[in-house]
Amino acid sequence: MKSRIFSLLAAIASFFVVGGLSAAMGTPAARLHAIPGGEKFTVQLQYQKAYNAVLAALKASGYEITESRQTSGVIATALQPTEKGSAKGRRLVVSFFPASESSTQVTALVTEQAIDGAANAQPEDLQPNLGLSKAAANSLKAAFGLK
């Protein structure tokens, strides 16, 4: 019975994560799944506690949060220039998925895109940066005391 409940929750969560992520990226939800990447890890915390811990860690690190939806499992940071005067920017999107009653899968994804027209970005305009995604995941793991 518990596994069926978690399967149902997983299906619902994935639907909302895609929708929440699309709002954060300014892209249609139906096409967002085409964006690969992200670094995944699992924490031994309930979903709500993991979400709140990541949100607090991002805010403490000085990130400006543009999307924070616990119900859809997405936190997105503001698009920041890659370097001073650059026409490209980066954003961190963290998504959450309940792995069990007491653990949560967290995915950190850093994307790069043109700053001009960011609100109208298409999935093909969002370039995942796997190295920075891994670094972001490692920083978040450290906040949880993980290696």
Please outline the major beta sheet: 7 strands, antiparallel
Strand content: 25-35%
Rg computed from alpha carbons, rounded to a whole number of angstroms: 15 Å
CATH topology, by name, is TATA-Binding Protein
Number of helices, where a helix is a run of at least 4 consecutive DSSP H or I residues: 4
CATH superfamily: Kinase associated domain 1, KA1
Helix content range: 25-40%
How many beta-strand segments? 7
Structural shape: elongated
What oligomeric state is this?
A: single chain
Structural class: alpha+beta
Poorly predicted runs are 1-34
CATH architecture: 2-Layer Sandwich
Task: Report the span from N to C terminus.
Answer: 33 Å
Question: Number of domains in the coordinates?
Answer: 1
Query: What is the CATH C level class, in words?
Result: Alpha Beta
What is the overall pLDDT average?
A: 75
**SSE order:** HHEHEEEEEEH
Which labels suit this protein?
147 residues, TATA-Binding Protein, alpha+beta, disordered N terminus
Protein model, in words:
The chain has 147 residues and is of the alpha+beta class. It contains four helices and seven strands.
Q: What's the SSE blueprint?
A:
Layout: H1 2-25, H2 29-32, E1 39-43, H3 47-60, E2 65-69, E3 74-77, E4 80-81, E5 88-98, E6 104-114, E7 127-128, H4 130-143
Antiparallel strand pairs: 1-6, 2-3, 3-5, 4-5, 5-6, 6-7
